[in-house]
Amino acid sequence: MTTPVAETSQGGAAAGAFCDQCGRPADGAEHPRCTARRELEPPRYCPDCARRMVVQVTPVGWTARCSRHGERSSAG
Amino acid sequence: MAHSRTVTTTQSDILSTARTQVLEKGKGLSESQVLEVLRLPDDALDELLELAHEVRMRWCGPEVEVEGIISLKTGGCPEDCHFCSQSGLFASPVRSAWLDIPMLVEAAKQTAKTGATEFCIVAAVRGPDERLMTQVAAGIAAIRDEIDINIACSLGMLTSEQVEALAAMGVHRYNHNLETARSHFPNVVTTHTWEERWETLRMVREAGMEVCCGGIVGMGESLEQRAEFAAQLAALEPDEVPLNFLNPRPGTPFGELEPMAGPDALRTVAAFRLALPRTILRFAGGREITLGDLGARQGLLGGINAVIVGNYLTTLGRPAESDIDLLGELQMPIKALNDTL
Ligand code: SF4
Ligand SMILES: [Zn+2]
Ligand SMILES: [Zn+2]
């Protein structure tokens, strides 16, 4: 099981092995605060490796870059 | 004026005083009067919001100023503002990032597309260094080449040379928040003083730029201190006051504070409008957290006459279209660019 993906957090940012909000393992665990937060928050941690990503928010979207796994964005 | 509900004598006292003093004469409420407003019970809230709305319509008009903001330099700030996820001193997940000029221009375009007339360039710094001033100058020139929009900046504390340089670049408004009441400031920031912030604001005004100065409510201040803050802002006479509600950021000293209750947030909006009848009062960050989706409407009908559309610096907002649609529905025209020149 993975953490649910909110509408505002596209591109599978939340659908990995780690929670993109707190960086802890996502396996089966519920992260209620993270789920609530995700609606108004870009991803912070890489869902593949839990590294902190470099995030840039713009008026209409965001991009998030992991040094290992590359860039994701709100555009998908 | 007929009151829609029965209120006790003291309540109707402050509201009828405000009606004469603020609505009719345009004179803002004093600190002690703001405190009375902040103490009004929930059942007087509708009447208060209606009055604040009338004051805004009478002294500012129906137009709403729409602004977009962008973070040019994110994170890694040496200051310790306890609410801020961009301080390098806390274990916040926000990492340092610089925006390049093409992305900055793109963000300005996205902002202009919404109908916004203001684009504010923000950097998480104590004050600008040479690299940042150079980047800002290049960014402003590149935006001006392509887009017609007012450019504002928020780059922390300035030297007098930097104030002059920004004015010469054509920066139309400078944002620097006092954040909270002077008496509460040492509980919020320890790496610089309220007075240092005031000094930057004074120089900005002197250089002929518009002054934008507001803060964050819900940072553990008392109602007395909230009233004190409104009075201190009124004394500054800023062109714009952005009002934020604390959005507790993970890893910051204020990360575990409770977000303000909706009625308190709305009472604060109305009280600030009654203290500052002619100022552009902007809904800034945190409104989605405190007030939810209905917040934009309630605020715009309770004293607010400016909004930040789209996302914030490090967090996401409502989609710009939902705010723009709402303005249409409320028959509040977006302030046009030539009105502000
Ligand atoms: S100076 Fe600005 S960016 Fe730096 S910690 Fe304070 S609020 Fe955050
Ligand atoms: Zn989580
Ligand atoms: Zn990764």
From TrEMBL, chain A:
Cofactor list: iron-sulfur cluster
InterPro entries: BsaP_C
Record has Transport as a keyword: no
Biotin synthase auxiliary protein C-terminal domain mapped to chain residues: 53-75
Keywords: Biotin biosynthesis, Iron, Metal-binding
Cross-referenced Pfam families: BsaP (PF26519)
Family designation: Belongs to the BsaP family.
Function: Required for the activity of the biotin synthase BioB.
Identification of the protein by name: Biotin synthase auxiliary protein
Automatic annotation (TrEMBL), chain B:
Classification via InterPro entries: Aldolase_TIM, BATS_dom, Biotin_synth/BioAB, Biotin_synthase, Elp3/MiaA/NifB-like_rSAM, rSAM, rSAM_sf
EC number: 2.8.1.6
Pathway field: Cofactor biosynthesis; biotin biosynthesis; biotin from 7,8-diaminononanoate: step 2/2
Domain Radical SAM core: 62-287
Cofactor annotation remark: Binds 1 [4Fe-4S] cluster. The cluster is coordinated with 3 cysteines and an exchangeable S-adenosyl-L-methionine.
Residues reported to bind [2Fe-2S] cluster: 120, 212, 282
PANTHER family cross-referenced by the UniProt entry: BIOTIN SYNTHASE (PTHR22976), BIOTIN SYNTHASE, MITOCHONDRIAL (PTHR22976:SF2)
Function: Catalyzes the conversion of dethiobiotin (DTB) to biotin by the insertion of a sulfur atom into dethiobiotin via a radical-based mechanism.
UniProt name for this protein: Biotin synthase
Gene: bioB
